[in-house]
Design goal:
heterodimer; A: 588 residues; mainly alpha; Sodium/glucose cotransporter; 70% helix; B: 76 residues; 2 helices
């Protein structure tokens, strides 16, 4: 999801880190055999469009919830954020906590009823119901385009990691991954993708949880770890979540608490978790309203513990990872001279390095299988979302509106294959110019923040008109692209985004790309909201009768069937929010 | 687009948890076996003396075994 650092430069590494033993290969082959079997097994129950694209809307809250959180738990994120933890310290945890949990709870409690009651098949589909064809077209085209590109980026990243860690040929990894994913998504649609996401979730926990456990044993416990990090880094700043965010200069990321709270916690997180169809599609597969509301809440509870096996290994590596001479290993940024010319490892290699440190034969196979499952799940999530948006919101809406249902299922299967072929093309494109990968990540962020502005106004504000929604979305997206180009042209322009026109060169230098993204997202969301409001007041409101089931105040939310307190989604949302609050206080 | 009703035959499908059980049980068994072997041939990893493969493999086998039994076909 949101702008994780990507191991692009691993491309240049020439030596593999380890190799797999026969027991490792046995575990890997077992996983591949199982996912292909599942594809063939569920094919018989994906005969209608509802079954193929929305898994028949019969998933329980637990399955939809695990799939929801798993769709985001790709290996790019795992490796990238472990590297970010090594680089920036515990601040990286914000992307898992304030940068996810409140948004997930908001989706479950406030937004899910509207998505679910409207019976929409996709987020662009909701925009069509609320704001008309224009908004759907903008959202559908940009989403379809981005998902196949992202799938290609995932594919290439997997091949790259397998090359660096295991010495596998890139072409072999690209094609094995592409054929396997295309096969099981084409056969089983979303149902197959969801089953594999749940498997991937279990594999990641099983494969990665041992690293922090053994790491903490070796470090002598949490208190000793904190003390050792403070000694190595010369300060305790690396282990505080909030106390260093009062100024851009006081923390390694160069970020201010306003960026974390408003840019990340509000705009980016809410944009991603509540409007990105890739994750919302998982919740739409729930079997009733209560399950649909509980799924994001269950997902958020698990999400809260992901830093245990992503962030903690990065922190442990700071004081435990040693080179062959027994000295503490120093990792460097991707693309640095040390990585390119002196054989040093980059930040993004921290997770594989920790795996190799602790995991012997068998366990290493499990860890590698978890990484591969994460990559394949990322591809499957993108391709299944692409085939749904293409079939429902582009093909079914503009090209062939009145075909029989079986035709759309067939189109879904074919678009899966075509989407995967485009992804393979993207993977090879990225192979030719690694910087394209960073641009694709940036492109994705152009659409998310403004889309959240449009959807949230659409759901909560009756007066938002069709023209308002369309022009707001367009203006927000354009403003995001404009700001990105502005900073690309001259990094000093960041000073306008952080509202410090007289910022010193040192401050500008300290603001990392990740922090700049937070402010770009916040501004583009604001532009979207302002334009939507102004245009809405200048145009005719949508008749109340057309807003039923779509907007707060015009919709009677049906009872979700929960009677006892512990059955109510709001109860569990409060429990999760309380634990989150306590964890933040503990690591303040 | 029209959306027909869900095919009731899908209700008879194997549970997702059954697949989870099979995968963790089989992987756990392989790792557990490797863990036993490592008592005599320890790997060169850090903290190998704690026999992580043996204990983790045992845990996964038990977890997977429980899910296989609990969600086996025909269990209802």
């Amino acid at each position: 999801m949101h702008v994780a650092p990507i191991p692009a430069i691993l491309l240049l590494a020439t030596t593999q880190l380890t190799h797999l033993a026969p027991v490792d290969l046995a575990i890997l082959l077992l996983y591949f055999a199982m996912v292909i079997f599942i594809g063939f097994y569920v094919k018989g129950s994906t005969n209608t469009s509802e079954q193929f694209f929305l898994a028949g809307r019969e998933m329980s809250a637990w399955i939809a919830g695990l799939s929801f959180v798993s769709a985001n738990l790709g290996s790019l994120e795992l490796m990238g954020w472990a590297g970010a933890a090594y680089q920036y310290g515990i601040l990286a945890t914000h992307w898992y906590w304030i940068g996810a949990i409140p948004a997930m709870l908001f989706l479950g409690i406030v937004m899910m009823p509207f998505y679910y009651i409207s019976k929409t098949h996709s987020v662009p589909g909701y925009l069509q119901l609320r704001f008309g064809e224009g908004a759907r077209a903008v959202s559908g085209v940009s989403f379809a385009f981005m998902t196949v590109l992202m799938s290609g980026v995932n594919m290439y990243s997997m091949a790259l990691v397998m090359k660096v860690v295991l010495g596998w040929d890139i072409n072999f990894s690209v094609w094995v991954g592409a054929v396997t994913v295309a096969l099981y998504v084409m056969l089983g649609g979303l149902r197959s993708a969801i089953i594999n996401e749940v498997l991937q979730f279990v594999l990641i926990w099983a494969g990665a949880a041992l690293i922090p456990i053994l790491g903490l044993i070796e470090a002598g416990g949490w208190t000793n770890l904190k003390a050792q990090i403070a000694v190595r880094m010369g300060s305790s700043d690396y282990m505080h979540l909030w106390s260093t965010l009062g100024s851009f200069k006081d923390n390694p990321m160069g970020v201010h608490w306003t960026g974390i709270v408003f840019g990340l916690g509000f705009v980016i997180a809410f944009g991603y978790w509540t409007t990105d169809f890739l994750v919302v599609q998982r919740v739409l597969s729930a079997n009733n309203l209560r399950s649909a509301r509980m799924a994001p809440i269950i997902g958020s509870a698990f999400k809260m513990f992901v830093p245990f096996f992503v962030i903690l290994p990065g922190l442990l590596a700071l004081v435990l990872l040693k080179d062959s001479s027994g000295h503490l290993m120093q990792l460097y940024p991707d693309g640095s001279d040390m990585v390119l010319h002196h054989g040093a490892h980059s930040f993004n290699e921290v997770l594989p390095l920790m795996m190799i440190r602790y995991l012997g034969p068998g366990l290493l196979g499990l860890g590698i299988t978890a990484l591969i499952a994460g990559f394949m799940s990322g591809m499957a999530g993108n391709v299944s979302a692409f085939s749904t948006v293409w079939t429902y919101d582009l093909y079914g809406a503009y090209i062939n509106k009145k075909a029989p249902d079986a035709h759309y299922v067939s189109m879904g299967r074919w678009s899966t294959i075509v989407g995967m072929l485009i992804s393979v093309g993207t993977a090879y494109l990225v192979m030719g110019a690694a910087s394209i990968m960073d641009y694709v990540q940036e492109l994705f962020s152009f659409f998310i923040a403004p889309l959240f502005g449009t959807v949230i106004l659409g759901m909560l504000w009756k007066r938002a008109s069709k023209a308002g929604g369309f022009w707001g979305l367009l203006a927000g997206t354009a403003s995001s692209i404009f700001m990105w180009l502005m900073v690309l042209h001259d990094k000093a322009n960041i000073r306008f985004m952080i509202l410090q026109p007289h910022a010193s060169a040192d401050t500008i230098l300290r603001v990392q790309a990740m922090a700049a993204n937070l402010y770009r997202a916040a501004w583009s969301w604001l532009v979207c909201v302002l334009v939507t409001v102004v245009v809405s007041y200048c145009t005719r409101p949508t008749p109340e009768s057309q807003l039923t089931g779509l907007v707060y105040g015009s919709t009677i939310i049906p009872d979700d069937g929960s009677t006892k307190i512990y059955e109510k989604p709001i109860f569990w949302a409060i429990v999760v929010a309380t634990v989150l609050f306590a964890l933040n206080l503990w690591l303040w | 687009m029209t959306t027909p009703h869900v095919d009731p035959s899908t209700e008879q499908m194997l549970s997702i948890w059954f697949f989870v059980g099979v995968l963790t049980f089989c992987s756990g068994l392989i790792i557990f076996g490797e863990g036993i072997y490592e008592f005599w041939h320890p790997p060169s990893t850090v903290l190998a003396n704690l026999h992580p493969a043996f204990w983790w493999g045992m845990l996964m086998t038990a977890f997977g075994g429980f899910y296989v039994l609990r969600f086996r076909p025909g269990k209802g």
